[in-house]
Write a structure and sequence with these properties.
single chain, alpha+beta, Uridine Diphospho-n-acetylenolpyruvylglucosamine Reductase, domain 2, five-stranded antiparallel β-sheet, globular, binds flavin-adenine dinucleotide
Length: 462
């Protein structure tokens, strides 16, 4: 364990408004926990800023002391990059305030807000910003990588709806970045991850959504995989943009709406959320039924905030995870054969493969307008996610994800993928993910963080 030099942390404690927690302080073990229980890191010091000024103090202190910095938003990074052995964890969870101006349709979210905080505040006004599907995920990490979710089809990625950010850069300065202010930094934080500093505030443009939306879940058995995917590739792209679908290879949940005899069964699901007229949603569900009758389906009106929490429990804290992602431009027969061959080989009931079909709103932001790690052409973003209750059980599942991913490579849009779906650092994959944007990201990194103070991320090495 690193011993802090000089005055230890007493100067830091005196200078910070928020708590400073060392290994011997109460709350240390609770605060250093990460969502992925595979990782058990022991920072030399944890700071919990209560303001942007606190973040500046922490960054300056860490740089002066030579402490490696890890920035923690919602702590959901699968690789455990939001903590660090012997370094400083900057835990942003006290910066979780969200304010909404319904007149200008803008929301300001603190750098440590969770998606649930953002949804709760914006939905009070019937507004929302596209983000992910698990409400305990952090706005910070999700947005900085791009941010895709149920509203992406209608309104694009989270970053496509970002108006400005406030960032503490490696020199300890607090800067605003927006289209007309530090535009290079604003471009880079929209997809370039945590490479450029600590974002203390995100300002989003909002859209009308809900508060009641239409939820549907339809489920097909494992032996109908090929028919399921052929139906999916025909029907999903043709649905109206108000109807958003998450495609899943998963085990049926033990939910009240799942007939008891089908609970825990592995199979294929469409989670369909309608933001428009009820008839549009009902029509989508009917199209599935007539194309390929499901084993069961369920549909109901539901508050948008409740839909955004439906996957919270299956993704609860305390489990072990490994993940790899890729893009598929089409669901070819060959890709379908790989998916339906590999999915049933998993050994854990909780492991899943999930897809977003990216179209409509996703295509409306030009490719070079942001640093997003994916071309703006129609595609499926696929996430292969291993989940197990213990570290020991994770090993076979990690092998399952890797062999599944390898087998899909000949059908994928290259080795690059959405950076928020990458676990292990891999420079070749990262460069492929950013393609011709990589050089511009590198230049911006050299401008704002030439000594790589912020390196616990999908790192752009200066
Ligand atoms: P953290 O682990 O806290 O942070 C991850 C990294 O982001 C940090 O290492 C740091 O570099 C950086 N970071 C975080 N906050 C800040 C900040 N304020 N300033 C500077 N850097 C910061 N992605 C989607 O797009 N859509 C989804 O629907 C989706 N669902 C998910 C569901 C689950 C259960 C999980 C585990 C992940 C999901 N993801 C999804 C991926 C998710 O976007 C990434 O894991 C993201 O990094 C999580 O952000 P976080 O703040 O919770 O993570």
């Amino acid at each position: 364990m690193t011993q802090l030099a000089g005055s230890g942390t007493s100067d830091l404690r005196a200078a910070m408004q928020g708590p400073v927690i060392g290994p011997d302080d109460p709350g240390y073990d609770e605060t250093r926990r990460l969502w992925n229980a595979e990782h058990d890191r022991r920072p030399a010091v944890i700071v919990r800023p209560q303001s942007a000024t606190d973040v500046q103090t922490a960054v300056r202190y860490a740089v002066a002391e030579g402490l490696e910095i890890a920035v923690r938003g919602g702590a959901h990074n699968t690789a455990g990059l939001s903590s660090v052995d012997d370094g400083m964890m900057i835990d942003l969870s006290l910066l979780n305030q969200v304010s909404v101006d319904p007149t200008t349709r803008r929301a300001k979210a603190g750098g440590g807000a969770l998606l649930g905080d953002l949804d709760a505040a914006t939905q009070q006004h019937g507004l929302a910003v596209p983000a992910g599907v698990v409400s305990h995920t952090g706005v910070g990490g999700l947005t900085l990588g791009g941010g895709m979710g149920l509203l992406t089809r209608k309104h694009g990625l989270s970053i496509d709806n970002l108006e400005s950010v406030r960032v503490v850069t490696a020199d300890g300065n607090l800067r605003r970045a927006a289209a007309g202010e530090n535009p290079d930094l604003f471009w880079a934080v929209r997809g370039g991850g945590g490479n450029f500093g600590v974002v203390t505030e995100f300002e989003f443009r909002l859209h009308e959504a809900g508060p009641i939306v239409h939820y549907g879940m339809s489920f097909w058995p494992a032996d109908q995989g090929a028919e399921f995917f052929r139906m999916t590739r025909e029907l999903i792209p043709a649905l109206p943009r108000e109807v958003n679908v998450l495609i899943g290879c998963l085990n049926a949940p033990p939910a009240p709406f799942v007939p008891q005899e089908h609970q825990f069964k592995a199979g294929y699901a469409l989670i369909t959320v309608g933001f428009g007229a009820p008839a549009q949603h009902a029509d989508a569900m009917e199209q599935y039924r007539s194309a390929l009758p499901p084993l069961f389906d369920f549909t109901t009106p539901m508050p948008y905030v409740a839909v955004q929490q439906l996957l919270d429990e299956p993704n609860a804290w305390g489990m072990c995870h490994y993940e790899k992602g890729l893009y598929l431009e089409t669901l070819s027969d060959e890709a379908i054969a790989v998916i339906t061959d590999h999915f049933p080989q998993k050994t854990s009931a909780q492991s899943v493969a999930l897809f977003y079909h990216l179209d409509h709103g996703y295509l409306e932001t030009p490719d070079d307008a942001t640093a997003f790690s994916g071309r703006r052409t129609e595609r499926y973003a696929m996430f292969l996610i291993a989940t197990t209750p213990t570290v020991e059980a994770l090993e076979p599942e990690r092998a399952w994800v890797r062999s599944f991913w390898d087998a899909l490579q000949p059908h994928a849009a290259g080795i690059g993928s959405y950076v928020n779906g990458m676990t292990e650092p891999d420079e070749a994959r990262l460069q492929a993910a950013y393609g011709d944007k990589y050089d511009r990201l590198l230049q911006t990194k050299c401008t704002y963080d030439p000594t790589n103070v912020f390196r616990r991320n999908q790192n752009i090495k200066p």
